[in-house]
Amino acid sequence: MSVNAGRDMHRDARNPQPPPLDAGALRRSRIAKGRAMFRATRGNRDAREALLASAAEPPETPPPAA
Description:
The protein is mainly alpha-helical. It has helices spanning about 5-15, 25-30, 30-40, 45-55.
């Protein structure tokens, strides 16, 4: 076990925040998207896949009426 792994375990135990891995939630919430981006840069594959899925899907809001 490395020092960084121990620090990560301590941080996760002190600040539990379940990652919202729903593509719709990532599109609606900038905070959730920021957390997922932070985890993706740290190597979290689930967060990376959720970010790619949220970018690939079209937005839920209909286009404005002309």
